[in-house]
UniProtKB/TrEMBL annotation:
GO terms for molecular function: glutathione transferase activity. It comes from Gordonia jinhuaensis. Residues 8-22 have a biased composition (Low complexity). This is Glutathione S-transferase. GO terms for cellular component: cytoplasm. InterPro entries: Glutathione-S-Trfase_C-like, Glutathione-S-Trfase_C_sf, Glutathione_S-Trfase, GST_Omega-like_C, GST_Omega/GSH, Thioredoxin-like_sf. Residues 176-300 form the GST C-terminal domain. Transmembrane segments: none annotated. Residues 1-28, 327-348 are annotated as: Disordered.
Length: 374
């Protein structure tokens, strides 16, 4: 989850200047391995409201940053399940300082629903003494303006299990009961070795810490490659929560993790099975149409100024290959199971075409962008 203290991940925007300014934040502690703080606000929004926050359409706002892989998960799940009309979404810009994410994409730099310029304001309304990281994704209670939860692993599970009354017709079952134990096991390994593994490489404060993180990352990627050589999806024959969690890291791999975080044994595009798997998902409605490559690169290369002091954002890599045929359909599988693909994103949530895969004619029905392949 994108965080603002000595640990950070991702965010979102297009033309924002570096928001890091005179207070850029610090991400690497010399001589130490990177350890993520996972103490989140664990309040849940449930059907029975046992934590004081019942499921109620229109009451909550999901605050995200498009470049953040942890927030990107919630965007994908919300879209696949068709929760757009039940849970509104606010977007922070891709750059920030050490204090807070900001709503610099909105007119006047103020979220139009929450009426605040900084996400930190919603955290302080929940706890005036809040001193931990201001992270995305966060779900905010609109009536009080206070953060309900920033516990990103639980947010998507609750979208899947607690908000079923508001799922769209044809919404897929992303966390099927008979596969949950296996999904949880796969997710645990993906989180420790891959999702967080790239950060352990990028934010390593010593050679030894980096070497160990690098070896663990690519050992797990090789294991996942072997698994996915035999089956189209990570668990079962349909897309599940496990695929969503792996996808958001793979989508950022060549753009930022390979170079910026020194995860450079191989590019994703040089790992045939994982590359085909990632393209399969990217070309599936609800996945690639949520990815903003411009914002991804802006966040990592600008905000992590202790890793990239010049804050120069690279022009590459070439992204057109995300739309090349993947051949994964030969493995069978049913992407949405008994469900159906989601409709195109609502107009206000379409990723700008120039932030996405370069265009080359034709029509992409999933993203609304023009392109030659699907």
């Amino acid at each position: 989850m994108a965080r603002l203290e000595p640990v950070s991940t991702s965010s979102t925007d297009s033309t924002s200047a570096p928001a890091s300014g005179s207070n850029p934040g610090k991400y690497v502690e010399a001589g130490s391995e990177y350890v993520r703080d996972t103490k989140y606000i664990e309040t849940r929004i449930t059907r029975d409201g046992r934590d004081g926050y019942p499921v109620e359409p229109g009451r909550y706002r999901l605050v995200v940053a498009r470049a953040c892989p942890w927030a990107n998960r919630t965007i994908i799940v919300r879209r696949l399940l068709g929760l757009e009309s039940a849970i509104s979404m606010g977007m922070c810009g891709p750059t920030h300082d050490a204090d807070s994410w900001t709503f610099d994409l909105d007119p006047g730099g103020v979220d139009p629903v929450l009426k605040i310029p900084r996400l930190k304001d919603a955290y302080l309304r929940r706890d005036p003494d809040y001193a931990k990281g201001v992270t995305v994704p966060a779900v905010v209670d609109i009536p009080t303006g206070a953060v309900v939860t920033n516990n990103f692993p639980q947010i998507t599970i609750d979208f899947e299990l607690e908000w079923t009354d508001y799922h769209r017709d044809g919404a897929p079952d992303l966390y099927p009961e008979d596969l949950r134990e296996e999904i949880d096991t796969v997710n645990k390994g993906v989180y420790t070795e891959v999702n967080n593994g790239v950060y352990r490489c990028g934010f390593a404060g010593s050679q030894d810490a980096y070497d160990k993180a690098y070896d663990r990352l690519f050992t797990k990627l090789d294991e996942l490659s072997d698994r996915l050589a035999r089956q189209r999806y990570l668990v079962g024959d349909t897309i599940t929560e496990a695929d969503i969690r792996l996808f958001t890291t793979l989508a950022r791999f060549d753009a930022v993790y390979h170079g910026h975080f020194k995860c450079n044994r191989s590019k994703l595009s040089e790992m045939p099975v994982l590359w085909a798997y990632a393209r399969d998902l990217f070309q599936t409605p609800g996945f690639g149409d949520t990815v903003d490559f411009t914002q991804i690169k802006q966040h990592y290369y600008i905000v992590h100024s202790d890793i990239n002091p010049t804050q120069i954002v690279p022009k590459g890599p070439d992204l057109t290959n995300w739309l090349t045929p993947h051949g994964r359909e030969k493995l069978g599988g049913r992407p949405f199971g008994e469900g159906t693909p989601p409709p195109p994103p609502i107009p206000a949530e379409v990723v700008p075409a120039d932030h996405w895969v370069p265009l080359s004619g034709g029509v992409n029905t999933a993203s609304g962008h023009e392109t030659t392949t699907r």
